[in-house]
Write a structure and sequence with these properties.
This protein is about 25% helix and about 25% strand. By secondary structure, it is an alpha+beta fold. It has a five-stranded mixed sheet with strand order 4-5-1-3-6, with helices on one face. It has a five-stranded mixed sheet with strand order 7-9-8-11-10, with helices on both faces. Strands 2-12 form a two-stranded antiparallel sheet. It starts with a helix and ends in a 7-residue tail after the last strand.
């Protein structure tokens, strides 16, 4: 059966966004060895995670940033207490709920990563909007995230990739305000490419199709700033039962 024209157009748009990210990443450091960043969390605080991820990506040297970008900003999320990693962490989130280690060669992860268990579990119900503060003036930029059938780890992966890559590509600064908007699904036809950023990946239920998971609005298309509809919240996280 031939798919309807709208479905073909949607997949074409998703393919174009997917190809754009592939081009940007593949050209960052084509000959560099694979590296991985390790993110240790003691609680699921979305706002704190975003602030810490931006600070971590901003702190990397140009060589480190290009190498990590060339490794598709690979990250592993582990359950632990960042307060026990102050002498090893490259960055710690402002509220202390997360810490970043690396980037480390993927074949030689830090010893502490073998002692911590990976995160697992379901994504808790999130507020419709969450505001990430920034020192820069002006209204916040919108970062939309899909949540339907997205696990906790997948949410972290898509959010972290988007924030880190946008910073490394110069499409997001560490101090501009953001508004996270959670929706069941995102419309690919309204997704933002450069100078914004979009993350397209394979659909969890059907790897033969692509799905839009995040879309960061470009700076020049900021929307009027209004009070957030819901306050920031912190959720506990649990380790996987499997090593």
């Amino acid at each position: 059966m031939t798919p309807p024209p709208a479905a073909v157009l949607t997949q074409d748009r998703l393919t174009a966004l997917f190809d754009e990210r592939t081009r940007l990443v593949a050209g960052a450091a084509p000959d560099a060895a694979s590296v991985t960043t390790f993110v240790v969390l003691r609680a699921f605080d979305v706002v704190d995670l975003v602030r810490g991820a931006r600070a971590f990506a901003t702190d990397l040297t140009e060589t480190e940033g290009r190498t990590w970008l060339g490794s598709w900003t690979r990250a592993r999320f582990l359950f632990g207490d960042p307060r026990n990693l102050t002498d090893r962490a490259r960055a710690v989130a402002p509220a202390g709920t997360a810490a970043w280690l690396g980037p480390h060669p993927s074949e030689h992860p830090p010893g502490v990563s073998r002692l911590l268990k990976p995160l697992t579990g379901s994504l808790p119900k999130l507020p419709r909007t969450l505001d990430v503060p920034g020192r820069a003036s002006g209204p916040p930029r919108e970062l939309r995230l899909a949540t339907r059938e997205v696990t906790l780890v997948n949410y972290l992966v898509h959010l972290h990739h988007t924030v880190a890559e946008a910073v490394l590509l110069g499409r997001l600064t560490a101090d501009e305000p953001l508004r996270l908007v959670h929706q069941a699904d995102l419309d690919p036809m309204h997704a933002h490419a450069g100078p914004g950023y979009a993350r397209v990946h394979y659909a969890a239920g059907d790897p033969s199709e692509l799905r839009l998971y995040t879309s960061l609005a470009p700076a020049e298309r900021r929307e009027p700033c209004v009070p957030p509809t819901s306050p920031s919240r912190t959720w506990p996280v649990s380790p996987s039962r499997h090593n």
